[in-house]
Amino acid sequence: RKEVEQDPGPFNVPEGATVAFNCTYSNSASQSFFWYRQDCRKEPKLLMSVYSSGNEDGRFTAQLNRASQYISLLIRDSKLSDSATYLCVVNEGSASKIIFGSGTRLSIRP
Amino acid sequence: DAGVIQSPRHEVTEMGQEVTLRCKPISGHNSLFWYRQTMMRGLELLIYFNNNVPIDDSGMPEDRFSAKMPNASFSTLKIQPSEPRDSAVYFCASSWDNQETQYFGPGTRLLVL
Questions:
Q1: With an 8 Å Cβ cutoff, is B34 touching chain A?
Q2: Engineering a disulfide at B19: which of A10, A106, B79, B111 sits with its beta carbon 3.0 to 4.6 angstroms away?
Q3: What is the pLDDT of residues A62-100, one digit of tens each?
Q4: Does residue B51 have a pLDDT over 90?
Q5: How many A/B residue pairs have CB atoms within 8 Å?
Q6: What angle do CA A83, A85, A88 make, to 5 degrees?
Q7: Does B91 touch chain A (CB under 8 A)?
Q8: What pLDDT does B83 receive?
């Protein structure tokens, strides 16, 4: 089993739709969690951290479920500019144990 | 403010040649990471430095790969000799603390023929 697993997609949704994807992790001792966004042929960039209480940043909401060992990302009112690959990142407790998922591709169509 | 700077942005070389990738982290950051990204394997951590000292190089594929960080503002990743399977995008990232948000450079696209 992979340490961090994501559905590779692609998720193809119309503009304005709500889309959500999950990421599961195997190490129950994992300490911190992030979502990064990577545009085509660009570097990954931090989208948001994921806190135990859940957090929201505009149209984006991230949730953590420690019992079931997954994190989620919800995007409301999707825009064409949201098209990208979303990488789930799990920190297992040290810098060398920061694990990136393979990413979920999202494509927003007009 | 300048972000993480990497050079070259693109490199095409022939099998057996030496390749040197360069990275300048964000000023003030004390942790530096080298990653490799391929379609098959995704983003893999190769090596991590903290305060210029290599802390974990368990991700370095083999002895052909070496990395140095002679000072806080410069790091190199060297492949000698290069092989076609080394073709990938190599990212450098830096952070203030070793577990905080990482800021990635634009990457070096390496093609080994």
A1: no
A2: B79
A3: 999 999 999 999 999 999 999 999 999 998 877 667 889
A4: yes
A5: 47
A6: 135
A7: yes
A8: 96
Q: How confident is the model at residue B1 (pLDDT cuts 50, 70, 90)?
A: low
Nearest-CA distance from A98 to chain B in Å?
Answer: 8
Contact (CB, 8 A) for B52 and B64: no
Query: Count of CB atoms within 10 A of residue B15's CB?
Result: 12
Spacing of C-alpha B53 from chain mean position: 15
* Residue B43 token pair: 């983003």
Q: What pLDDT score was predicted for residue B99?
A: 62
Closest Cα of chain A to B2: distance in Å?
15
Rounded-to-integer distance, Cα A25 and Cα A9, Å: 18
Alpha helices (runs of H) in chain A, residue ranges in sequence order: none
- Closest partner residue to B55 (CB to CB) among A32, A95, A103 is A95
What does DSSP assign to residue A81? G
Nearest-angstrom CA–CA distance, A72 and A64: 7
Plot region of B31 (φ>0 → left; ψ -120 to 50 → alpha; else → beta): beta
Q: What percent of chain B has pLDDT over 70?
A: 96
Q: What are phi and psi of B78, to 5 degrees?
A: -115, 140
